[in-house]
Structure formats: C-alpha cells, structure tokens
Specification:
Strand content: under 5%
Structural class: mainly alpha
Number of strands: 0
Mean pLDDT: 91
Helix content: 55-70%
Shape: globular
Number of helices: 7
Low-confidence stretches: none
Largest sheet: none
C-alpha cells in the first residue's frame, strides 16, 4: 500500500485529497450519464498523478481543474441544478480519514489497487473496476459490503 496515503498535513497532500475527491465525483457522474471520449483518460491520468508521492502541488491543482472540467462535460446540468441530489459531488476525504480503522484500511487497500490499475492502460475490465472502486469510496458501507469490492480490485491487479 502507498505509505504516503494518510491524513493530509501539507498543502500538496491536501491538494492530493482534493484531486482524489474530484476523481470520485467524476466516476460517480458516469453512473447516470455517458462518458465522453476523454473520461477514462482523464480518470487514469488523475489517478497516476495522485499516486505519485512527489507530485507538485501546482500539478495536482491543474489536474483537479482538468478533472472538474471533464465532470461538467459528462454531467453538465449537475453544476447548475437547483435540486441537488449529491450523486456527482466530490468526495471529501476527511470522511475517509475519520472512518473507523477497519473501514479506512479497506478503503485504502481499494485506493492502492486503483492506483496500480491506473498505472498502465487499463482494459475494459480494469476500467470498470476503477470506476466501481471510485464510486464505492464515497459510500458509507460496512466491512461486509466493502470486502468483495476490495477483493475484486486486488484480484484484477493480480491478473
């Protein structure tokens, strides 16, 4: 697991959390709206940058804006909706850091698997696992519901 994944202390770590949060929002926006031709590339590029423990704060910020722009391309009406449902909201990673240890550990394993999957050119199966994992990160699921998703992601990494 990536040892740098812990509650943020530096500005760059806070920006990494913000980037991960918007990546979750983008993945969740594709549940009810079709992806654009760029969505998967934006997701994997953002994940690769977020996985880099030495990523510069300004690079993380630029990628955040790229992902946010893509999210608005996928679900343009969500940004101006007056009856917000929250389905495409960015995930606040403070919820992850405050989660019970068993849930936090499972979600960090899930995130580590997603980082590994995004390092190459994910095939359709791996991209589906990435999308599902990012969606699940924002859910308040218990261990029983999380464990199979984590196992699927880790199994996909193994081949």
């Amino acid at each position: 697991m990536n040892q740098f994944l812990s509650a943020p202390v530096t500005d760059a770590q806070r920006q990494r959390d913000a980037l991960l949060g918007v990546l979750v929002g983008l993945a969740r926006s594709t549940v009810n709206e079709p992806k654009t031709e760029d969505t998967d590339r934006v997701l994997t590029s953002g994940l690769r940058l977020a996985a880099d423990p030495d990523a510069a704060e300004d690079a993380l910020r630029r990628m955040y804006h790229i992902v946010e722009t893509e999210k608005h391309r996928v679900a343009p009406n969500c940004a101006i909706c007056t009856m917000r449902c929250g389905n495409t909201d960015n995930y606040d990673l403070a919820r992850l850091w405050a989660a019970p240890e068993n849930i936090r550990t499972l979600k960090l394993r899930l995130l580590a698997a997603v980082f590994r999957l995004a390092q190459g050119r994910p095939d359709a199966r791996a991209q589906e696992v990435i999308d599902q994992a990012l969606f699940v990160l924002a859910e308040d699921w218990d261990e029983e519901l999380l464990a199979p998703v984590v196992k699927r992601a880790e199994d996909c990494c193994a081949g």
